[in-house]
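Hi D.,

Good news: the full-assembly prediction came through. Inputs first.
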Amino acid sequence: MFMTKVLIVGATSAIAHETAKLLAKDGAEFFLVGRTADKLEAVENDLKVRGAKKVESLLLDINDFSRHQELVDKAIASLGGLDTVLIAHGTLPDQRAIEQDVAASLREFNNNCTSAISLLTILANYFEKQKRGVIGVISSVAGDRGRQSNYVYGAAKGGLNVFLQGLRNRLAASRVAVVTIKPGFVDTPMTAHLKKGPLFASAEKVGGDVYKAMKKGQDVLYTPWFWRGVMLIIKSVPEAVFKKLKL
Amino acid sequence: MRRYESWGRYPSIKPENVKPVYWQKDLTELKETNQTVLPYGLGRSYGDSCRNDGGILLDTSGLNRFICFDENTGVIRCEAGVSLAEILEVVVPRGWFLPVTPGTKYVTVGGAIANDVHGKNHHRNGTFGCHVTCFELLRSDGQKLFCSPEKNRNFFRATIGGLGLTGVILWAEFKLKPIQNSFIDVEEIRFSNLDEFFEITAQSDQGFEYTVSWVDCLAKGKELGRGVFMRGNNNPSKFLSSAASNKQLPFSVPLDAPEFLLNNLTMKAFNTAFYSIHFKKVRYKTVPYDPYFYPLDFIDRWNKLYGKRGFLQYQFVVPFDNNNYAIREVLSRIANSGGGSFLAVLKAFGNVESPGILSFPRPGVTLALDFAYHGEKTLKMLEEFDQIVFESGGAIYPAKDARMSAASFERSFPKWQEFQQYIDPKFSSSFWRRVTDPLKGAD
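Then the structure:
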């Protein structure tokens, strides 16, 4: 895949930034979207030093769906087209806390699923017409099966996974690659409050995997690789047993 | 998963209370904490200067973004957690190189400043701190100090070589040096004793940017201090490539090696082989910068070769004198004890003065050694070395130390009290408490 005109949504996320560093080294041009001005500026400067030909950005709260068309139009106008999209925004809620709060549950669902569906609906039409390009979306292994400790996040990522399957199926005819990215535990600011174990991977490692998978136009990426096996086992446990587990 | 050990792994690990720092805002709570804090980058300090037992380590390796780089002037500004490896990857293909580099590229810019690191070109270009133009220092009360040789000059001087105790360096700016390509022209000269070493040093300091020697510390008598002198310059040809080197580490030590691996026999075999390979008096070669500057970086986590016991580095500097008593005495004691150092590195420092109050390098000769930790025996031997070093008016390097006494520290750094007033009240380290608490008690 050619990855030269790159839109990144959630550009200040650690995984997105690590992926972008590799694209910058190749001399890509970027349009970055994020919601915190100083972080966005920091990433912008970093990518310029690392070799990006051009970096522009837009400050936006991704739950403001009414601005999604504007976001896509601005990105295309800024870069003179688009061949690569990486959707990387997301939040990890405290499951126990949001169980008591309908509004918070729905907001988390929007952050992690609906907002991406809205954006991808607009982007898909552009890519379908253009008949080339790659769309990478950072989902999670948590979307593979619902667990009591994390099921609102899991449901959002699961919804996203099915949406991406369908989108991949639709865009295959237009030779547009849709890459579902399923990281396991990654050592990032999003997980800073969690106790780290040996299953945690660095954002640098995961970002490198994302870069390679998007370059190849791979369908589904588990990163690090062993999560494919781990999730295969988790998915194969019968529900009658699974529901009694503390997961 | 990160381990938060020191590189020498002695004293051995206790679990640390670690706070990861990804953005400046992660540091806003410093005011509220009632424990002491210490910045921790990539953990390449050998002893306890990167440890803060009972307190909090601020893992600042997440502050790793570049801010700007002027390809015309070679001035680069980046957050303090950026590693020298990352800088090389960005700047070498564009014709620039680090002004000063230590023997590993896996250190952060913040760590390079805090230890005011030196390299093979100290005789010409001084320490890393000599090339720093400015940085921003965050104090625990939330104050941000812009420090340069003109502004907040005292904090500038205290932070360079300040062992991370003056606050968190948020970003730093320094000047790179121009290169034509990424290769180094090297001459390796075998010398058969210390006198020859000093002769070659005298001949090389003018014509060679980089000088360093490996010494066979098992050789005795007339051969005492024999070794290989490695001197080099950046290759001047415009026609060689400056492609960045491969950042993957080819070898890694996955587990603690059994403790018998580095024993006297393997040490003798290695030292004899190294000396004998250089069968000709002089060898010339042109090599990429990576194997020249960072030979040990090719073995990821080589410190585990010493096994669980860990090891001690010992580096000192002594002023030049007529018979180089201290170097001779230390080398002959090691040779006679038979418990040699696997790697012994000898280099002459120059007289370029660093701005750092607590900077280690000073004009003279420096010798770096490493010893597997064999309990009291090792500590006692190093205690004896201290005496020899101080008789010659020398000093010991804190970044590599895990055992020097408070008295030794004071003799190495007589200006420590001047430095002390710039320490942030919330910042401390295991090293600092070890070497200064007894001194304060004596007041």
